[in-house]
Amino acid sequence: MAVFWRRCWASMASSLDFMVDKQSSLALTACKSFIRSASSCFPDVSSFGGMVQIASEDAWNPIPDLLNLEDSKEVVYSTLDAWVAFEQDFPLASLKQALTALEKEEQWHRIVQVIKWMLSKGQGTTMKTYEQLVCALEKDNRAEEAHRIWQKKIAHDLQPVPWRFCHLMLAIYYRNNMLDRLVKVWTYSLFKELEACGRKPPSKDIIWKVEDAYEVLGLQEEKKALLDKYKDLYNKPSRNDRRKGSKSRNTEMNKTSG
What we know:
The protein is mostly helical and about 260 residues long.
């Protein structure tokens, strides 16, 4: 029986290289991973007839494949499914590296596809993942969908949500001229829930966006109340102000030393 299975592994591996094309490279690697696992039961399979040679470099590198796949949800999903089919543990670390590479290439549509596939498997359901998804959706010109994700997955419980994510969502509303939604989220979600927990806005950049939305929508009383409440925050330098100040100091120091 062992000889029979060894011959099966050898035959499968020797034929795989004739079947592979650009679209199926992940499937090939997944099959080889399966053969590698099975052949561990039969150590001599790697030299059987000189046909099976599976080395460590066959481990899947997701980055080239995800960068080069055609723009099709079905292709991306089936390719990723083929890859993880024989993995013992879900490869979150490899996917994180792949998403980082996709961000550098500004492949926002592909990032959305990969994250949605990952979430469909019940994996990576963290605040950071949803923040990355919302950001990619806006950059893919899908701000409306980003809003729906926020409403469905995040807005119902804001206590664990970092202000960074909240600021991102306000910025998306601001950049996409969804000022009524910005005001609604600020008034009925962020201000009501986070302020009640003592979590005040960390940056005046947030208040600026809300102030401007009030101004555009003609909500002068709300704008005045906002400025009165956060007047102390306005006296603190924002992150951009600090960066400018640091650059100015460095410039002056260089002039002095010169």
